[in-house]
Amino acid sequence: MEFVLDTADIDEVKELDGLLTIAGVTTNPTIITKSGKQSEEVFAQLADYLKPEQKLFAQTISTDYDGMLAEARHICGLRPKNTYVKIPVTRTGLRVIKAAKAEGLGVLATAIYSADEAFLAALNGADYLAPYVNRMCNYCDGVGQVVGLIRMLAAQGMDTKVMAASFKNVEQVRELIAAGIQAVTVQPPVVHAMIDHPGTEIAVAEFTENWKNAYGRTTLLA
């Protein structure tokens, strides 16, 4: 399974990449605008830092066919390999997905709110599908829809990977990992919640205190 960070903050990427096995980074227009940086700066920082085997995902802004396709080519040209354009699954977006895949570009279909939208994007050749799990919960059982999508793709023998996005809490991530999802992209606050269970810190403090009381030191080696 691929564990991906959903952020434009290069410092967060560096910190978490040092702690965890990170498969890549996703961004979107909102994340970039909230960073206070120009998109060119964000892309340059990420492209410079990520290892060749780590993936970079960036989204189109245009909503017309020609503009989206031009942006798709630009995004996929940011790095020699492992760079994917994120294309929303609008009617125009579905056309662009077909065209981009015909040119051999890497594609992640995004802004997905139903298993049906996702499956159609997979038929158009998308490499990844990004259902917005928590946002989907406003309309239906978001986690359930994504589990159903995983089953749909498996039943049809399709290689497209589901990369669930838009998580509100750790429980949503856990349920989909347990369901066999191929990838998740998670924002740093939720990642930190997965790492920093308070019980672990309590246990470590107890071990250290007991050792210090018995041996007068806080290290294993004398």
In a nutshell, what does this entry contain?
The chain is an alpha/beta fold. Helix content is 51%, strand content 17%. It has a single domain, classed as TIM Barrel (Alpha-Beta Barrel), CATH 3.20.20.70.
Overview of the molecule:
- With 222 residues, the protein is α/β, with parallel strands linked by helices.
- The chain has a single domain (2-194), classed as Aldolase class I (TIM Barrel).
- Helix content is 51%, strand content 17%.
- The protein is built from eleven helices and eight strands.
- α4 crosses α5 (91-102) and α6 (115-123) runs parallel beside α8 (142-155).
- The longest helix has 18 residues, at 198-215.
Describe the structure using short key phrases.
222 residues, alpha/beta, TIM Barrel, 51% helix
Q: Which band does the percent of strand residues land in?
A: 15-25%
Ends apart, CA distance between termini: 41 Å
Low-confidence stretches: none
The beta-strand count equals 8
Quick check: average pLDDT? Answer: 97
Relative helix content: 40-55%
According to CATH, the homologous superfamily is Aldolase class I
Structural class per helix/strand content?
alpha/beta
Following the backbone from N to C, one meets helices and strands in this order, namely: EHEHHEHEHEHEHHEHEHH
Largest sheet: 8 strands, parallel, barrel
- Count of discrete structural domains: 1
Largest sheet: spatial strand order: 1-2-3-4-5-6-7-8
Annotation field: number of helices: 11
CATH topology: TIM Barrel
Shape, please?
A: globular
Identify the CATH class. Alpha Beta
CA radius of gyration is 20 Å
* Corresponding CATH architecture: Alpha-Beta Barrel
